[in-house]
Amino acid sequence: MKLVVVGIGQCGGRIADEFARVQARAMEFRRLEIILDTFAVNTDAADMASIRSIRNDYQHMILAGAGKTRGHGVAKISEMGAEIIRDDADKIIDAMRSTSRFYEADAFLVIAGTAGGTGGGGAPVIVQELKKRFDKPVYSMLVLPFEHEENTEERTIYNSALCLKATSSVADAIFLVDNQRYVRKDFSLKGNISGINRIVTEPFLNPLSAGEEKRRGNIGARLLDAGDIIQTLDGWSAISYGVVKIPFIPMPWDYSSNFRKKGSSVHRGIEAMDQALGEMSIDFNPEDAHSALFLISAPHRELNMELVKELGDHLRNYAPQAVIRNGDYPRNKASIDVTVMLSKIACVPRVSQIYSKATALPDVQQRRAVERKTKANLTEEAGKDVPSLL
Ligand SMILES: Nc1nc2c(ncn2[C@@H]2O[C@H](COP(=O)(O)OP(=O)(O)OP(=O)(O)O)[C@@H](O)[C@H]2O)c(=O)[nH]1
Ligand SMILES: [Mg+2]
After folding, report:
1. pLDDT tens figures, 350-385
2. Domains (range + CATH), the chain
3. Could you give the strand order of the β-sheet that contains 107-113, starting from the edge strand earlier in sequence?
4. Ligand 1 touching residue 143 (CB < 6 A)
5. Residue from 6, 10, 187, 201 whose mutation best tests the ligand 1 pocket (most atoms within 8 A of CB)
């Protein structure tokens, strides 16, 4: 499967940059093209300074609304972000269209942090424009804020709610990433952020690669291609993967006992799948997922029907309502990797929470304004007998 990836705002740009590195690895180690091109769009020129792997020209690092913001961003006002990106949509889409072999792309991926002004406002606009102009699925990856941001930055919840609602009304599917789920106490925030970006992009490498393989040895018995992924993805979605090392070079007795060999690969497969299920990018009740896909990537000697069947059963127990698709991707390496996508998730508690907090906001703001006025009046009242200098 081949994607064209665009990141809006700082968060979107950094994650798109990470996708550019995923593509670099696919090319270096597999000679595969899975991401045809990568773009970063921002209203803030300084925000783009940390981008390292996206091509550094004005067609790939796109500064939007320079006439309005002079390259200084929209200060978290997502209505302004949306307006600027809409005004510059032609420029952005034309840059994307100039991707070489653009028409081979199977889908678009639009990435942003929901709390940002540029990303939160701009991402739904770009999704909508891509949907209008091309007959290809448009997916989005939306990053939900850290908890501490909700308390320190008033626009966090409001921007997030606007972005989630607007994007979900136009995108084919949205991968949700909740920053808060990745907070590790022993990490600095900077380490955390680039760590999160790596963790959320890596699971895409195998599912995008599997259908693009041309070498016979790397083509699975059940090949997972773009069609399977497109059929799986719809609405709120999550992706993750797990890896279990195969501990030693196979010993002669590993071949002698077929039963033992199969048993140990099933164990490793289940362990990798459990890892994936435990590290989903967003919290939800698996019973609410109505569509699922898993891909096993392992050396030929580990892949067998029993492994596929057992992993299928395991996922069915976990997400009993889901229609499950699967594939295998033989790779010559010392590990079993299992990627899991869960989609058509009927209810995501974190999204509902953001919506209800946002709806309560005007009340809170009104109450604060009344409180401020009352306190100011009281202070003025207390000072009424102090003589005036002016
Ligand atoms: N996972 C992750 N989250 C990020 C990253 N950068 C920012 N965020 C989150 O994204 C949200 C802020 O969005 P930004 O992308 O900084 O904002 P923006 O889209 O540039 O918008 P403005 O700066 O307001 O114009 C916050 O919730 C941050 O925690 C990143 O590289 N990775
Ligand atoms: Mg910014």
Report:
1. 999 999 999 887 766 666 667 677 777 777 888 888
2. 3-171 (3.40.50.1440), 239-345 (3.30.1330.20)
3. 61-63, 35-42, 3-8, 107-113, 138-144, 173-178, 235-245, 335-345, 289-298, 323-330
4. yes
5. 10
